[in-house]
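Box S1 | Example of a co-folding query
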Amino acid sequence: MERTFVLVKPDGVQRGLVGEIVARFERRGFKLVALKMLRISRDLAEQHYGEHREKPFFEDLVKYITSGPVVAMVLEGRNVITTVRDMLGATQPAKALPGTIRGTYAIDVGRNIVHGSDSPASAAREIGLFFAADELLVWKRDLDSWIYE
Ligand code: DAT
Ligand code: MG
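Box S1 (continued) | Returned holo structure for magnesium ion
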């Protein structure tokens, strides 16, 4: 089973959307294997968004992501990385399809509510940045035979 990393960004927490966002992934059938609330340090933000270090928006991005508490989680399931990205919607909320998270709740790219890993390599790297190995729970979900054939 594949795993991905999802972050409810400070605007998602401030706007009271944590439960709504977690619920969408649960209802889809994905399994939570880790979940925590934290305040991201500048150092962690720079590591997490390292690929954007040279971009003009990098400083604003780091300020935004460190501006308040966030909720980090790891989700597990078949094809979870791509499906979660599809559920988030386009990076630019103006281009995000209605029904996606960003297409439902966001307007500006600098307030786009959620993050999700974009590849297996990013997922492994981001899970390792935010969670210790013993924070990832291995558990059997009895519902699985009604979600996977
Ligand atoms: P995503 O979050 O969809 O993976 P990304 O990795 O390209 O998108 O960028 C990370 C974040 O940086 C994104 O969620 C919002 C911000 N960002 C991206 N492109 C931007 C731009 N052109 N102007 C301002 N902020 C931008
Ligand atoms: Mg990205």
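The chain has a mean pLDDT of 98. Helices lie at 10-14, 18-28, 42-48, 58-65, 80-88, 101-105, 120-130.
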